[in-house]
Design goal:
The chain is built from 6 helices and no strands. Helix 2 crosses helix 5.
Amino acid sequence: MDYVNAFWVGGLICALVQILMEKTKLLPGRIMVLLVCLGVLLGALQIYEPFMKFAGAGASVPLTGFGNTLWKGVKEAVDENGFLGIFMGGFKASAVGISAALVFGYLASVIFQPKMKK
């Protein structure tokens, strides 16, 4: 049942974002920022954690999950280091994911020889 919940919740998030892209004049970059901020907001309101427990990867993989990860990192760093934690927490919590995206993106560009659009 975990796989089913992850599938339909992740699909629903993607479908809502697709509708948002098609029905509004928002650019994709702004929609991505909106999703990250929504994840931070829902994490701060303590709504996203129970949602992630229910949906698993369907809620943790989209950009809202990244926003929630940033929130958790900042919250933990502020508890440990005070005011400086605001600046450290997000980087510390998301460093592995960002590093993996950079490394795998580089490897994909080396393997598949990307071409510029004309």
